Amino acid sequence: MSKKISAILVAILILSALSGCGKKEEEAYSSPSFSNGSSSEATETEAEEESASLTEALMIASFTDATSTDADKSKNLAATLTDAPIMGARTDKVYYNTLAEFKISLDEEGWEFYDAAEVATAIDATADYVNNLWYGYSSPYDEGTTYAAIAYHKDSGSSIIVSYVNPTEYNMPDYSAKEYLKMAAGKYEDLKVRTVTFLGDKYEVLDVPDEQSNVGRRTQFAIKKEGLIVLVTFTTNNDYKLENAIRLISPLYY
Length: 254
What we know:
Structural class: alpha+beta
Largest sheet: 7 strands, antiparallel
Number of strands: 11
Strand order of the largest sheet: 4-5-6-10-9-8-7
Mean pLDDT: 79
Helix content: 25-40%
């Protein structure tokens, strides 16, 4: 499979596959392209007030009440995940991202993870290709865009997608998470990228209302870690609330 999977093509394929879960097929969201090579810094004037629902979701994602017992569990978990591949590790209901240090726990009814074959179908790849990435036999540093986890809610068609973008593959190694999301914001009207506290860290966020995205409310959180832009994309529709989806994600060691 080509190393240069375009972010646009892959995102269209994924959203097309996911859109069939509870919503009529509509125009898919396309990820930004690196082709223009532009780079710009955010200014204070770009900040705007967060919606009430986004604020509530961020409060949920940033809250921790660690105890000494939790700290002991953290030590054990850290030892367990020390040798995990950069794409993370998973069980049937939990995905651990060791790069940005968060986990997704599907403890709400109706949520499931795509397995390797289902992810492969969504991105027009092979199951071997996905498994090689997930188990560390190939590297996201050799690709433009890779997918670490896709969770879906079968009743509403909502989804959570963890993906990596490697700016080096687009000859832009210094490209930031904010610059990446600003390109995505360019296709919408009057939307700005903001810096927020999410999962106890500083993330950039682009919150696209459902009336502009055509696939439901689309909220992307981005952070750059070890040269890769880590994207956590929530797509919520059919009255499923963003804050409910965000309840499934938490810092890795709490």
